């Protein structure tokens, strides 16, 4: 296996997180729910429709693994927003999913800047909202220093790795993208000067012409983002389209069985 992808996959090879960290009342969320999402009422929580797991105490606040999961037979999701209540930019990412991704089994790594609710608000096909989330104890994820020196980051930016394996009748795809995803709150460890925000803000993944998922993101998605997801394969190549806030664009295609 390629060393770059091996390191990323090891982050997922841990036991399932304990379900001991439910969402807590949050004045910040009460404001975000209305001002950002336009929801007057609290969306219902129903693990039979959508669940979210995340560690109760983050091992590393800059790469907190978040797992979104639906059981078999759950209603399809039309769109989904990931919110980290106490982050400087609380909307971490907004997703749209294709039919091949249902029922949803999707993992991503986020920055968490302080003790916070991490929640997913999904819109179902009939327009009804549903929410899932956990309370995560973490600190400083958005200002954590970059994992590599600046020169190396520029050299490898935009590189991608893909792996797909069969599991329980579906494919499990793992996509890794090299990008520093600078939050604008970090400092260069040599000069101590602030690093301007520079992050992936648009991602689209397809198999052939069929959509798997799109992502519109902010500063809260981790450095070198990794996406692990289940999908129903159609035999066509995987196409990945990436855009960042500096106007860079990367496109790459992979065989399903890579």
TrEMBL record:
Domain Sulphur oxidation protein SoxZ: 174-254
Pfam families linked to this entry: SoxY (PF13501), SoxZ (PF08770)
Domain of life: Bacteria
Keyword Signal applies: yes
Signal sequence extent: 1-18
UniProt name for this protein: Sulfur-oxidizing protein SoxY
Organism: Paracoccus tibetensis
Residues annotated as domain Ig-like SoxY: 42-142
Keywords attached to this entry: Signal
This protein's record includes keyword Signal: yes
